[in-house]
User: What shape does this take?
Amino acid sequence: VWLDGGHNPQGGEVLAAWLAEQKKDIYLVCGMMKGKDAGHYLKPMASLVKEFHAVVIPEETGCQSVAQLVASARTCGMDAYESVTVEKALQSIAMRAKTPSLICICGSLYLAGQVLYANNHMEEKKNAAG
Assistant: This one.
């Protein structure tokens, strides 16, 4: 699982260049803020991605809806799905992936921050449990 904070067309191009070097199936989990051009961000990655999973960004009222993100991804030619949360998207991918795969969570620094917070919170719980 990789985490990327890119959220504009240039960030999409950089991420696509890196993804093109990977030798695994690629799954994107993406949440974006309103006002960001999801189509131009996703277009460079379209031919590289096996599946796209749209999520809302927790605690961010200014994020794009999953329906908007799915529509942008499908316009780019991606196989796209709506997911309630990042966790649900990861569970769905884990059930569907048939080969070693790369999951990239991307689209917003706000989403990246939420993912890092959740990961750190889980680590703290694990350490407290001993």
About this structure: The chain has five helices and five strands.
